[in-house]
Write a structure and sequence with these properties.
This protein folds into two domains: about 5-130, Probable inorganic polyphosphate/atp-NAD kinase, domain 1 (Rossmann fold, 3-Layer(aba) Sandwich), CATH 3.40.50; about 130-305, Tumour Suppressor Smad4. It has helices at about 20-30, 50-60, 70-80, 105-110, 115-125, 155-165, 175-185, 245-255; strands at about 5-10, 40, 65-70, 80, 85, 90-95, 125-140, 145-150, 150-155, 190-195, 200-205, 210, 235-240, 265-270, 275-280, 285, 290-310. A hairpin with a 4-residue loop joins strand 7 and strand 8 (about 145-150). The longest helix has 14 residues, at about 175-185. The chain is globular, with a radius of gyration of 19 Å. The chain contains eight helices and 17 strands. The chain is of the alpha+beta class and about 300 residues long. The chain starts with 6 loop residues before the first strand and ends with a strand.
Length: about 300
Amino acid sequence: MTPGAPVLFVVNPASAAGKAGRQWAQVETWLPSAGIPYETAITTRPNEATDITQRAVRESRPVVVAVGGDGTLNEVVNGFFHNGAPIPTTSKLAMVPLGTGGDFRRTLRIPIDPQEAIGVLRTGVARRLDAGCVTYQAADGSTAVRHFINIADAGLGGEVVQKVGNGTKRFGSMAYTLGGLRALVGFKNKPMTVDIDNITHQLPKAQQVVIANCQFFGGGMQMAPTASPTDGVFDVIFIKNAGKIETMRGMNDFRAGKHLDQTNPKIELLYGKRVSVTSPVKVRIDVDGEAVGFLPALFEIQPGSIEFITPR
């Protein structure tokens, strides 16, 4: 961290139904005495964190810190990119996890305690992480582009996020469990065609296709236990024609990251840099826990495209 230059904290006070705003107010009681020069930008509307970050990144502010949940982090990550490409900068990204979800932090072991997470700004190490870029169909039918740093998913996950976003996010990982059950009850597996680095996989019926840069999603499920944001590839997981009861029974395996050990023919792990997913029916996608739109979607890895301050 450059001595003297202020760190920019981008705070989403609405994260976790306002819990993040309350937690940040507590942080502000001791932060001035922590010896870190800083400025705070409080967001007031969706996607404002992206605009604030983009300005900071263009000025090469030394460190931009996402303060909130994975949704806030995704908005800040998107501020490091423009028209699908990284903005040339010396700015580094960091995170203070407040609010719900908090799945990205698990892979990098970012502390959940705000004081410890802010300590990482001082003691941590900057590492180049891969980011994903997805081109997809927005709700209005137009083509949209968005970046992600954790996990994207087509199928059941998109439906879960849609349900969790509708009023249950304040309950944290419990929200994902409840949303998951609600989504699962009404969900029908979909036909999907997945092209991974020009090899085509036909899935006559699939519950979900997961494109993972990191390991955890859905409030602590270790969906991609071998994923690493520094290896230059996505872990791509097919959950094929799994039934509802079977899925409920397997929840603990997903939480513990053991679902790939069971040699279940309905679960397959592949690796790739460019993944295209299409379907003849409407399939929702989610990106870093945000329901953004629908298939068709193209997911591309951008190796080492963002510098992140991680614990040593």
